[in-house]
């Protein structure tokens, strides 16, 4: 009933004006639980995409992977002296640093100048143990030295390999400092992590208006309305400094995201002309193929190679996981050997999405090609189940000690491709005696604070979702032992499976300061071998991003480097309104 109502509501809407009123309406299958959290405690793809319209960085990358200056006056480099590497007598790099000068006209959306203090404020909170950030690396080794109100140096000791390729975020101190002081006072001696986490939520909410919109942002657009379950509206921020060619009046003035969780409904809306474009978090692969067959000059569909890794996390934490032997690599290997991923990608993706056997994307120079390929092998899978003491019951389901091998398998509700993958895998696992129960959730719940990070509470067994990587920056952080979210660390970290391996952690730590690429490749070779043997997550495939846009919409592009079409938000516009095309989708 809900799906029918959603479809009806969207199709009954008035036809979109598009270039007529210089607006842009984008459809997406997910709605973020919050937006523009400077510490990215909600690490959701759609949040990152929307934040691209509202955020700004010191530097950024374009579709070709070339750096450009945004808040900073120029891109730091060894040549211009803003990037420095210090070695000891033995020739080892002991520290490196990056110096930035903030543009004089860089301002928050309320007109307040962006200053060094905003970066200092962000860094202080980023490294506070009470803040539930996904990962503190590399900022836990960073120190800011101030030259003046606009110039500062970020020093990493030990050195950070990608110091010149990433830029420290900023947070509006003038808006948030009072609320932070209140949070600090309330939680300074608090022993209960849950209480601290609730106070953090209050702190973040203090940064938003009664309509859940951030009070200030730094990017090309600022939010003006959020109708939960329906849409988010953003209007051009006149205080944003990087003006597009020919003047910002020639480019999109209003951006509306429509939240349509059912991807089939999303497809119908683009077919019926109700949307100008689709988000990178939008249609599934097969829906993209169908859209491509029905373009008829009304829109164009793209399949963009990316760095998105689809996988299934296995919960190895808690008593339930132990009872099910999920903490034993043999169980995880058996689960992987029971499924036919080659057949799956052929059936669903015409074999255009490559089967994965590693957490490193094949775009990366660190990718190891010759790790074990877990082709389906039911005989080996059954042998491993037997080693662990699981035997088939009268109904064919494996059991041990009176308990069935019954697993809860969840993903984001409404994503038709993931739901089809679930059904295929459910049938394949049933064939070897594993009972899988499908339990899906809205993305706001699935990626919210009380699900994936709470594996120790037994809230899930198998969780299918994607991680977005960076082909330039690969650190191996997803599976480091210190990244397991727990009550003690405020549920920060991204290692939701809870897998910990001492050798992997040692190699990972060593790789963080290995500037020689050949030696770093050797470290990652071993890390991938360990990971591939232990399989804390079941690797599925590397995704291509599917999205659609109507003719005449320019600079709405992305790549594996930029990740989302919002990277170039200021320059998105309609050719008929005078917008200059700088980038074409490749």
Automatic annotation (TrEMBL):
Ranges where the Solute-binding protein family domain occurs: 97-472
Signal peptide positions on this chain: 1-22
Pfam families referenced in this protein's UniProt entry, alphabetically: SBP_bac_5 (PF00496)
Key words of the record: Signal, Transport
InterPro entries, alphabetized: Peptide/Ni-bd, SBP_5, SBP_5_dom
Gene3D superfamilies according to UniProt: Dipeptide-binding Protein, Domain 1, Dipeptide-binding Protein, Domain 3, Periplasmic binding protein-like II
SUPFAM superfamilies named among the record's database cross-references: Periplasmic binding protein-like II
Cross-referenced PANTHER family: OLIGOPEPTIDE-BINDING PROTEIN APPA (PTHR30290:SF9), PERIPLASMIC BINDING COMPONENT OF ABC TRANSPORTER (PTHR30290)
Family designation: Belongs to the bacterial solute-binding protein 5 family.
Name of the featured protein: Peptide ABC transporter substrate-binding protein
Organism: Deinococcus oregonensis
């Amino acid at each position: 009933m809900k799906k029918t109502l959603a479809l009806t509501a969207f199709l009954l809407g008035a036809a979109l004006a598009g270039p007529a009123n210089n607006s842009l309406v984008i459809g997406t299958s997910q709605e973020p639980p919050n937006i523009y959290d400077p510490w990215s405690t909600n690490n959701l793809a759609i949040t990152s995409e929307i934040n691209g319209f509202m955020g700004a960085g010191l530097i950024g990358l374009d579709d070709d992977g070339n750096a450009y200056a945004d808040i900073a006056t120029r891109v730091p480099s060894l040549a211009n002296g803003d990037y420095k590497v210090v070695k000891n007598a033995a020739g080892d790099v002991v520290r490196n640093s990056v110096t930035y000068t903030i543009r004089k006209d860089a301002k928050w959306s309320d007109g307040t100048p962006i200053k060094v203090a905003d970066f200092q404020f962000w860094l202080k909170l980023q490294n506070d143990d009470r803040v539930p950030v996904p990962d503190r690396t590399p900022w836990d080794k960073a120190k800011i030295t101030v030259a003046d109100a606009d110039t500062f140096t970020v020093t990493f000791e030990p050195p950070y390999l990608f110091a010149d390729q990433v830029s420290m975020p900023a947070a509006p101190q003038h808006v948030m400092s009072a609320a932070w002081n209140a949070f600090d006072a309330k939680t300074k001696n608090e022993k209960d992590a849950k209480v601290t986490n609730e106070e953090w939520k209050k702190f973040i909410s203090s940064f938003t208006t009664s309509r859940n919109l951030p009070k200030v942002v730094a990017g090309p657009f600022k939010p003006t309305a959020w109708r939960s379950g329906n849409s988010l509206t953003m209007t051009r921020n006149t205080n944003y400094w990087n003006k597009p060619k020919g003047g910002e009046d020639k480019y999109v003035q209003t951006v509306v995201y429509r939240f349509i969780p059912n991807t089939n409904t999303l497809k119908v809306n683009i077919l019926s002309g109700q949307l100008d474009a689709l988000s990178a978090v939008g249609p599934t692969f097969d829906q993209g193929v169908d859209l491509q067959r029905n373009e008829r000059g009304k829109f164009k569909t793209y399949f963009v190679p990316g760095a998105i890794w689809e996988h299934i996390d296995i919960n190895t934490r808690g008593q339930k996981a132990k009872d099910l032997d999920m903490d034993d690599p043999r169980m995880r290997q058996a689960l992987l050997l029971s499924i036919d991923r080659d057949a799956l990608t052929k059936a669903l993706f015409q074999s255009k999405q490559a089967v994965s056997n590693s957490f490193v994307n094949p775009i990366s120079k660190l990718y190891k090609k010759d790790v074990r390929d877990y082709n389906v092998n039911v005989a080996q899978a059954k042998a491993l189940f037997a080693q662990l003491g699981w035997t088939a019951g009268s109904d064919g389901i494996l059991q041990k000690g009176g308990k069935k091998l019954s697993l809860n398998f969840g993903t984001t509700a409404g994503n038709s491709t993931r739901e089809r993958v679930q059904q295929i895998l459910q049938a394949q696992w049933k064939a070897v005696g594993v009972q899988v129960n499908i339990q899906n959730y809205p993305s706001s719940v699935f990626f919210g604070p009380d699900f994936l990070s709470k594996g120790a509470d037994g809230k899930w067994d198998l969780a299918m979702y994607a991680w977005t990587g960076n082909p330039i920056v690969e650190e191996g952080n997803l599976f480091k032992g210190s990244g397991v979210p727990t009550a003690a660390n405020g549920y920060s970290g991204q290692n939701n499976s809870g897998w910990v391996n001492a050798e992997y952690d040692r190699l990972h730590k060593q790789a963080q300061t290995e500037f020689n690429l050949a030696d770093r490749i050797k470290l990652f070779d071993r890390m991938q071998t360990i990971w591939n043997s232990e399989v804390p997550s079941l690797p599925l495939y590397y995704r291509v991003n599917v999205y659609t846009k109507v003719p005449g919409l320019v600079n709405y592009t992305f790549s594996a480097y930029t990740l989302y079409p919002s990277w170039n938000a200021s320059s998105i516009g309609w050719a008929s309104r005078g917008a200059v095309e700088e980038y074409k989708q490749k």
